[in-house]
Amino acid sequence: MSTSFLENFLITLTLYNILATAGISLYGIVTRPSVTKKIISLTILGDTFNVLAIFIGFRVFSVPPVLLDLDGSVEKLTTFATSAVDPLPQALVLTAIVIGLAVNLFLIFLALQMYRLYGTLDSRRIRELRG
User: Fold this and answer.
1) Which residues lie closer than 8 Å to 56 by C-beta, 6 or more apart?
2) Cβ pair 87, 65 in contact under 8 A
3) Which domain holds residue 21?
């Protein structure tokens, strides 16, 4: 089961898009002075890494990781093990989504507190106000 030129092209294009999105979000985190834009860029970066983890666990010709036939023959188990998608990246991504949500809520809370204390979310202005 070899992959065609179109499938290789689409896989390569997807990988380049993931890397470009990660680069753009890192640029937003480093260069933007607004805390809100930094939080949005960090969220996009986390989602990009989740997509990359799913992309790593992807197989072109695969079946879901659910064994429906329980007769226990070695041949069926071997074909299932070689053709099933690895469920570990999917489970790790689900965990990362929940942790990312908690971190994003904490960062939003910190941004709200910074706005209450300093009246702005511009990191340069906050640095000047703190002295």
Assistant:
1) 89
2) yes
3) 5-130
Predicted structure pTM score? 0.81
Interior/surface letters 34-70, b for 16+ CB within 10 angstroms, e for the rest: bbeebbbbbbbbbbbbbebbeeebeeeeeeeeeeeee
The domain that holds 37 is classified in CATH as 1.10.287.3510
- For 106-124, write each residue's pLDDT tens digit: 999 999 999 999 999 998 9
Query: Is residue 50 within 8 Å of residue 89, measured between CB atoms?
Result: no
Q: CA dihedral defined by 111, 121, 31, 92, rounded to 10 degrees?
A: 10
What is the residue whose two structure tokens read 């799913």? Answer: 54
Residue 109 CA to residue 34 CA, distance in Å, equals: 15
Residue 64 CA: distances (Å) to CA of 29, 45, 72, 74, 96? 37, 27, 18, 19, 21
Work out the number of other CB atoms within 10 angstroms of the CB of residue 9: 11
- Per DSSP, the three-state class of 4 is coil
